[in-house]
Amino acid sequence: MCTYITHKVEVEGSAKGSNGWFPTTEASVYLDHPVHAPYEHSLNIDFLNQAMGPSFRVAVELNPKDAVQLARAILEIVETFNDLVES
Description:
Elements: E1 6-17, E2 20-32, E3 42-48, E4 57-62, H1 64-86
Antiparallel strand pairs: 1-2, 2-3, 3-4
């Protein structure tokens, strides 16, 4: 099932692609059929800088269950960091 649900988020960071490191300005997150990963559906994240052109994109395809674990780990790390900075 394709939902075509995509969340685009402005991000500020860096990604390493085939041309080396580049600044990221956007991330797209969507659940769809993967291009390469061996799953029926995958959680896909594209980090990109559209102003630099299509070669400045890094794509990730994750097993949906693993994507949930990754999201939890990200939230836990950021919350722990914030707690340390605030104390």
